[in-house]
Design a protein that fits this description.
With 632 residues, this protein is an alpha/beta fold. Helices cover 31% and strands 23% of the residues. The chain contains 20 helices and 32 strands. Strands 12-11-8-6-7-14-15-25 form an 8-stranded mixed β-sheet, sandwiched between helices. The longest helix has 19 residues, at 555-573. It is globular, with a radius of gyration of 24 Å. 53% of the residues are buried. It binds adenosine-5'-triphosphate and magnesium ion (MG).
């Protein structure tokens, strides 16, 4: 086995040869003419002149060897459906949707907005778009009409694909009325709407605009739609960031670079083999869903599970039952889901045969040590934290066991992956930090590797201004995350740069304080924010969900527990890090992808407007905090 250090060094020092090799992992109609064109930084054009197609690489390419093997396994515990599509069947369904889109007037380069629940038709729709060179723009199903309207105006789709309804915890969530309202609100009007009728909720069809998926599909049962070969730099999709730190940013991705990046990551990082089953519990509304529910596993010739439902319904064994049943080898989830499971009876994880499973990958938020240890113990497989962003499309920090086996360190997502020239910068002096333990902003030196965003959709200036202009005099990409690195080069994410707290001149990451508080045995979840303070500049304020609410039944009990938590922080981090108050809540405001909305909490604590809340999951969670801090 090669050493990872050599592999990584080669990816930067012999860039073109390295990526030309990786490019062999996918099919090309015409081979790339130029590997990396970085003549106009910070923009990078990968594999220019080469023509390929994402859908071909995900579907058609596998017909030769595995037409009758499982490709897409749709499981809904909401509607009790379970359907397996082989590669041959997937190929047929995708062509049917492609034919429908062509009939509705879609041409190469047009946008198709997908506002769908986690059903197989959503996967067909995404693949149908890239098949014909149209760009998909997936919007998380069930988003409020206002958020959807702004995305319609930004993506200006010719067609919207949706469904009558989604379902959550057994409750039907009608989508059609939200969509109708969004189209009314939006300035841009799509010319057609394609609707899957799941029979969950009645729909009022708009004459001349709305089309039912079922009957249109019947018309195209046998229509063949060949793949449109597009240049490697042809955009494949647009997708919004989670909106954790502010207004979501529209990420534009290419075709060839993305396909190569995913194929390489499936081999070197996820180690998924053709014929095996991959299970990512994410949603197609997020980047993990794009890269590791749909494209990555399929490009690798794996079957992929698409799951609609909760991790705890009908019981907390539902995911592990699927692992046993479909012999899942690689699984991908988020710390927030593991924290949900942690509150359930651990016996559910022991009930099923998990011997097929080789690793569980977790991403999206810092994975605290206690949670990592708990799940590692419960599953008995390696837990692989990985750090990345909607912008990157695939992991920036993790470990690549496909190159060289490396240990995971709990609390750390790992080391920089091949293709990424990651640095830590002191944001005051703009100097590079090289000593272990120093804290700085995680930045990446260009050119960015394949798969990375091409630009902000229709806004090159915003791309440059947002990401590449924060360190004066140096054109580097800022992740806006704050971290430290240990002597082995492992990174530890300390929080967002926005979340750094400055208490009387001491700089602390919210994550450090949260990690400390969560080591108290009664704490289930915690959010820490910095709040403006006349005396100290800023003070830390903690919001805690406790495991057993009977422990804070009255004010005296609350004060006792608050004191205990402060002592834990004092002893682990020192008195500077001690939160000025610890408040108890029953829920924390999060984005729909499960990330803590610290900036909204902070704004409320400072009696300011909470800002853009378009991606909030449960407004009641923020309301609890608002009630504690009524606006001035
Ligand atoms: P927005 O950019 O709109 O504010 P967002 O940054 O949450 O939203 P995403 O692209 O979904 O949008 O999330 C990327 C961010 O998630 C990273 O920048 C980092 O802060 C956090 N993150 C992802 N994975 C990890 C991880 N393994 N450990 C720590 N943090 C992580
Ligand atoms: Mg971000």
């Amino acid at each position: 086995m090669a050493s990872f250090a050599d592999f990584h060094a080669r990816s930067l020092n012999d860039r073109d040869a390295f990526w030309a090799e990786q490019a062999q992992l996918i099919d090309w109609q015409t081979p790339p003419q130029e590997i990396c064109d970085h003549s106009n930084p910070p923009f990078t054009r990968w594999f220019a002149g080469g023509t390929t197609n994402l859908c071909h690489n995900a579907v058609d390419r596998h017909l030769k060897d595995r037409a009758d093997q499982a490709a897409l396994i749709f499981v809904s515990t909401e509607t009790n459906q379970e359907v397996t599509y082989t590669f041959r069947q997937l190929h047929a369904e995708v062509q049917r949707v492609a034919a429908m889109l062509l009939e509705l007037g879609i041409k190469k380069g047009d946008r198709v907005l997908i506002y769908m629940p986690m059903i197989a038709e959503a996967a067909f729709a995404m693949l149908a778009c890239t098949r014909i060179g149209a760009l998909h723009s997936v919007v998380f199903g069930g988003f409020a009409s206002g958020s959807l309207a702004s995305r319609i105006d930004n993506a200006t789709p010719t067609v919207v694909i949706s469904a009558d309804a989604g379902s959550r915890s057994g409750k039907v969530v009608p989508y059609k009325p939200l969509l109708d309202e969004a189209i009314t609100l939006a300035k841009h009007k799509p010319s057609a709407v394609l609707l899957v009728d799941r029979g969950l909720s009645a729909m009022n069809l708009v004459e001349g605009r709305d089309h039912l998926y079922g009957p249109l599909r019947d018309k195209h049962l046998n229509t063949e739609v060949p793949c449109e070969w597009v240049d490697a730099t042809h955009p494949s999709y647009t997708l919004y960031t989670s909106g954790t730190t502010g207004k979501p940013k529209g990420v534009q991705r290419d075709t060839g670079g993305y396909a190569v990046a995913l194929a390489a990551s499936m081999k070197h990082i996820f180690q998924g083999n053709p014929g095996e089953t991959y299970f990512s519990t994410s949603d197609i509304g997020w980047v993990v869903g794009h890269s590791y529910i749909i494209y990555g596993p399929l490009i690798a010739g794996m079957a992929t599970i698409m799951y609609e439902g909760l991790p705890t319904r009908p019981d907390a064994g539902v995911w592990w039952n699927l692992v046993e049943k479909y012999k899942v080898t690689v699984m991908f989830s988020a710390p927030t889901a593991v924290r949900v499971l942690k509150k359930q009876d651990p016996a559910f994880l022991k009930k099923y045969d998990l011997s097929s499973l080789r690793a569980l990958f977790l991403a999206g938020e810092p994975l605290d040590e206690p949670t990592a240890e708990w799940i590692s113990e419960a599953l008995g497989v390696p837990i692989i934290d990985n750090y990345w962003q909607t912008e990157s499309g695939w992991p920036i920090l993790t470990i690549a066991n496909g190159i060289e086996k490396a240990p995971s360190k709990f609390g750390s997502p790992g080391i920089p992956m091949y293709g990424y020239n990651v640095k830590l910068i002191n944001e005051n002096t703009n100097e590079e930090m090289t000593e272990p333990g120093e804290k700085g902003v995680v930045v990446i030196e260009g050119p960015m590797p394949p798969g990375f965003m091409q630009t902000v959709w229709q806004d090159d200036k915003r791309f440059v201004d947002t990401y590449w202009s924060s360190i004066p005099g140096r054109m580097v990409y800022s992740t806006f995350d704050w971290a430290t690195r240990d002597k082995d080069g492992y990174f530890f994410i300390l929080g967002r740069t926005d979340d750094v707290i400055n208490v009387a001149g001491h700089r602390l990451g919210t994550r450090e304080i949260e990690e400390s508080i969560s080591s108290h045995p009664n704490v289930a979840e915690v959010a820490v924010v910095g709040v403006a303070d006349q005396l100290k500049g800023q003070v830390a304020m903690a919001f805690v969900i406790i495991k057993d609410p009977s422990k804070v039944a009255d004010d005296a009990a609350k004060l006792t527990l608050e004191g205990e938590i402060m002592k834990v922080v004092d002893s682990q981090l020192g008195a500077v890090a001690r939160p000025s108050r610890v408040r108890f809540v029953t829920a924390l405001p999060k984005t729909r992808s499960g990330k803590l909305l610290r900036r909204a909490i902070q704004a409320v604590c400072e009696q300011r407007d909470a800002g853009d809340l378009t991606t909030i999951e449960d407004p009641m969670a923020l309301k609890q905090i608002q009630d504690m801090f009524p606006p001035a």
